[in-house]
Amino acid sequence: MRVTSLTSPYNANPGDYVMVDSSAGAVIINLPVLGSLQGVDVEQDSATALSNTITVNGPASVNVDQPPPNNGTFVASFVWGPGTTWASPVGLGMHLRWFNGGSSGGYSLQ
Q1: What CATH architecture is 1-110?
Q2: Residue 8 · residue 25 · CB < 8 Å
């Protein structure tokens, strides 16, 4: 699934592979309730500019892990892009997979 600011917010489904183009505006991805070991992949399209933020929200009361250097720190919403630790060039083309690995903190990164 390709998501842009025009199709945002996008409500992901278990097993989705979401390619994000944030060059025209901010994009929001809402993760679903995931069964054991189910996951969702979210990737920034490296062929487009990382001009705006990408926000990934866990479902109600489920937090999501962050990549290094903040890995192991679970938050309600993970944001990357301008003004964050994960701006260009680090965030350009970043591919993250959140999954339900049974962590009490929330959805882990694989």
Answers
A1: Sandwich (2.60)
A2: yes
For residue range 1-56, list pLDDT tens digits in order: 899 999 999 999 999 999 999 999 999 999 999 999 999 999 999 999 999 999 99
Which two structure tokens, joined as six digits, stand for 68?
């290094």
The Cα-based distances of 69 to 65, 75, 97 in angstroms read: 11, 14, 16
Location of structure tokens 């892990």 = 65
CA 16 remoteness from chain centre: 12
- Residue 93 DSSP one-character state: T
- Whole-angstrom Cα distance, residue 29 to residue 110? 18
Q: Residues 55-58: contacts with CB within 8 Å, 24+ apart?
A: 55/26, 55/27, 55/28, 55/29, 55/79, 56/28, 56/29, 56/31, 56/96, 56/98, 57/28, 57/29, 57/30, 57/31, 58/31, 58/98, 58/106, 58/107
Q: Which amino acid is at 24?
A: A
